[in-house]
Amino acid sequence: MDGHHLILGELTDYLTAKVLPDTHDERYRQKIARTLVETLGYDKSEITGRHELIVAADEKKAKIPVDFVVRIDQKTGMLIKYGPGSLTTRHQPALALARLVSNDLVPVAVVTNGKDAETLDTASEKVIARGIAQIPNRAELSEIVSRHHFRPVSKRKKEMAARIVYCYEIDGACPCDTTVCRLEDEQTKT
Question: What is the number of domains present in the chain?
Answer without folding.
Answer: 1
